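Recall that a protein's primary structure is simply its ordered list of amino acids. Everything else, from secondary elements to tertiary packing, is in principle encoded there. The following example makes that idea concrete.
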Amino acid sequence: MTSTKHTVVDRELFTQALRHMGEEDLLYLNRMVIERLNLLAQAKSTVALAQFAEGDRVQFTANDGSVKQGTILRLNKKTASVRTDEGQGWKVSPGLLRKVGAG
């Protein structure tokens, strides 16, 4: 998802400037881009986490493809700590969680 709300520099002009940058400038720009991407990811995660609360019943798909259900024990900075019905503890990205009914 790209936002066109704030176009600071014309993309063509930016591309031309990029082609003339030296290594030091490119490394600096890289650090700035990484910082911005991390900030956007953190904001997105915070919004997603706000949909959940401790005690919510949730489900998610594990790496092996199995669907796990459990209860949120704690909301962390980037993940939710979930105790599955089998008693396993998981830290799950909020984007992978879905609320389910009790039971």
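The chain has a mean pLDDT of 90. The beta strands are 57-61, 67-75, 80-84, 89-92, 98-99.
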